[in-house]
Amino acid sequence: MLQTRALTKEFRGFRAVSDVGLSVAEGTVHALVGPNGAGKTTLFNLLTGFLAPTSGQILFRGEDITGRQPEQIAHLGIARSFQITSLFDQMSAVDHVELALASPTGLGYRFWRSSTQMRQFRDRAMDLLGQVGLADRSGAAAGSLAYGQKRALELALALALDPQLLLLDEPTAGMGLEDVDRTIALVKQVAEGRTVVFVDHNMHVVGSLADTVTVLQSGQVLAEGSYDQVRNDERVITAYLGQAG
Ligand SMILES: Nc1ncnc2c1ncn2[C@@H]1O[C@H](COP(=O)(O)OP(=O)(O)OP(=O)(O)O)[C@@H](O)[C@H]1O
């Protein structure tokens, strides 16, 4: 479904992503892991068009999408949820989802849109909030939501695009145990019928969710395989021990 060929990103001569050949199979959950500074976020930004590669190619369902803008990539059915919150504090949860649902139609960008026009999205918005466990918080201002609930709302916004490929940047970052387990269950649920690529530092999350794990180090692919394969890989152990030391 998603493939990169010799994908490289340099920042003033420094190779943050170097010659990466990633292959994500349709219908799988694929984790990107690696020590700090390994290039995970940069790779994510390349895949979603937020950064342009220095060289190499990105293919989505065999089509070359290298150099496309983020909104063009989103239109292809690739959605991303952000690690850093991008919510409007004063706006309610359900209004956020309605706006996201309206965006593909162009309505979302018109702030003078009528409430009647937006009403058509209400049922679907409530449905999405229910999926992420926020049905009873639909009217709450985003700013008043607990951290885990904000992350759940961000996931609902990504799901509003009904993406074929969902990219999640550290979905459990900063969460307590309970929220982590709830998020694992949630990602499993939304992965039904979709392909998911995610970055996470939490190995419990990676082991619970990922069909395939790609380990990056210094911008390059160090190892790839099932969670059990990579966690027993000597090179991976050394890379992580190096970081701890
Ligand atoms: N805009 C930039 N300009 C210069 N260097 C950058 C830029 N973005 C990232 N880098 C460098 O590229 C390398 C990879 O960074 P990246 O954020 O992709 O790693 P990461 O694996 O996501 O790390 P972390 O787990 O800490 O989030 C780092 O050495 C970083 O300092």
Q: What is this structure's SSE topology?
A:
Elements (H helix, E strand, L loop, with lengths): L1 E10 L2 E7 L2 E2 L4 E5 L6 H8 L7 E6 L2 E2 L5 H6 L2 E4 L11 H10 L12 H5 L2 H10 L15 H13 L5 E5 L7 H14 L4 E5 L3 H7 L2 E6 L2 E6 L1 H5 L2 H11 L1
Parallel strand pairs: 4-9, 4-10, 7-8, 8-9
Antiparallel strand pairs: 1-2, 1-3, 1-5, 5-6, 10-11
Bound molecules: adenosine-5'-triphosphate.
What is the gist of this entry?
By secondary structure, the chain is α/β, with parallel strands linked by helices.
Describe this structure in words.
- One of its GO terms (cellular component) is plasma membrane.
- By secondary structure, this protein is an alpha/beta fold.
- The protein has 2 domains: 1-77 and 165-245, Rossmann fold (3-Layer(aba) Sandwich), CATH 3.40.50.300; 85-162, no CATH class.
- The protein has 10 helices and 11 strands.
- It has helices at 40-47, 70-75, 93-102, 115-119, 122-131, 147-159, 177-190, 203-209, 227-231, 234-244; strands at residues 2-11, 14-20, 23-24, 29-33, 55-60, 63-64, 78-81, 165-169, 195-199, 212-217, 220-225.
- It has a 6-stranded mixed sheet with strand order 7-8-9-4-10-11, sandwiched between helices. Strands 1, 2, 3, 5 and 6 form a 5-stranded antiparallel sheet that branches.
- A hairpin with a 2-residue loop joins strand 1 and strand 2 (14-20).
- The protein is globular and about 55 Å long.
- The structure holds adenosine-5'-triphosphate.
- Adenosine-5'-triphosphate (ATP) is lined by residues 11, 14, 16, 34, 36-42.
